[in-house]
Amino acid sequence: MPVFLEPVPNVTVAVGRDASLTCSVDHLGQHKVAWIHLNRKMIVSIHNHVITRQPRFTVTHDSHKTWTLHVRQVTQEDRGHYMCQVNTAPMISQQGYLQVVVPPNIDDTNSSKSNIVVREKDNVTLQCRADGFPKPVIKWRREDTQFIETSDGRKVRQLDGATLGLRQVSRTNMGAYLCIASNGVPPSVSKRITLDVEFAPQMHVPNQLVGAPLGTDVQLECFVEAHPRAITYWENRDAMVMNTSRITTHTLEDHYKIHMVLSIRDLREGDFGMYKCISKNSIAETDGSITLNKTYRPTSPPTKIARPGLLDEDFGYRARRPGRKEDRRNQDMEDSTRRLQEEEEEKRRREEKRRLSQEHERKDLEHDFNRGHRSDGGPRVTQSAGVSGGEASKRSPATSVLASCLVLVLVLYPLCQQNHHHLHHRRHYHQQLLL
């Protein structure tokens, strides 16, 4: 009697591919092998003959032991149980299962459009439908890998389900969302849905008051957020600012963010005043203002020259490091000061020499005066003709007082004159310092 050598294997194949079912029988003899599709209740073949009228089915055998049913370009209708039957008495048979899987496919007719536009603070629901076998699983992700803000307030990287609900959308919700469908049958498929959130332009001016001196360069900046894309420009004195060789405007855009920059080189008197950065789109218009004021370059304090007897506290500040012009000015002042010091030293030497000379004369007079007293035994008096000796003796004390006064005059006069010269030179020295 015929016997089966091994069971009919189960086969899984993707739709559109080819499949084969094998039935191995020993001692077949004069008996025949038939293939039957049980789910469709259809006899496919009997021995070497294909009964069904579908040319996709064929049968081959190897030495009457291995009988193989071939199915080309399988469809989902080909899925089901297949029986290998031998017409013995009683009949013997065994079954195998042909599984036909279908990769996922996005159903565009039942999914959201590829581009959705809403106003800020509105609610929106994104839908994604897919078919396939087994039934696909749908996941949502943002293309920029940012968090998804769900309607219940959660922030997640990925969300499962055929629908994605967003409440009171803001500009941060704007972007591309990916609907990914997969069921284990490659390849997975996805759909890109872009969400545009429209809102009026909003202006931010970081510095509304800018100061700069004449002849310098300056930049004025404004930051704008707007969608749809806004038109931006600058105004000064109710006129649009145009690009020139000195004045240029440019913008840096990043999605719905715009950075406005106004650059002015070599500032002039007519450049100062109020500037407006203006932005407008299909929803509204807004502007910001910047006032450009003239400032003055800081002046450096006069450089202090170190002189004997003068400290930093006399000036109230410390001298800063001079530049080239200041170096030249400082050198001139140092030369002038050195000359003044040399002149002062020369005058001091002349005064000292004269003082020593006068002191020497005074000592000589005093020496002569004292010698006269010693030689006469009393005050030395010159007598006029006709004056008696008694009168001369009476006038001797007065003559002594007169001589003493003369000595004091000769001593004090040079000292007073020296002090006068010293005070005069000191006053002249301080005047030079002030200059």
Please tag this protein with its features.
435 residues, alpha+beta, eight-stranded mixed sheet, 39% strand, elongated
Could you walk me through the main structural features you see in this protein, from its secondary elements to its overall organization?
- With 435 residues, this protein is α+β, with helices and mostly antiparallel strands.
- The chain is 23% helix and 39% strand.
- Strands 11, 14, 17, 19, 20, 22, 25 and 26 form an eight-stranded mixed β-sheet that branches.
- β19 and β20 form a beta hairpin.
- It is elongated and about 185 Å long.
Summarize the structure.
The chain has 435 residues and is an alpha+beta fold. The chain has helices at residues 324-376, 389-434, and strands spanning 3-6, 11-14, 19-26, 33-37, 42-46, 49-50, 57-62, 66-71, 80-86, 92-106, 115-119, 124-127, 130-133, 137-142, 148-149, 155-156, 159-160, 163-166, 175-182, 189-204, 209-212, 218-227, 231-236, 239-240, 247-254, 257-264, 273-280, 285-294. Strands 11, 14, 17, 19, 20, 22, 25 and 26 form an eight-stranded mixed sheet that branches. Strands 2, 4, 5, 6, 9, 10 and 13 form a seven-stranded mixed sheet that branches. The protein has a five-stranded mixed sheet with strand order 21-28-27-23-24, with no helix packed on it.
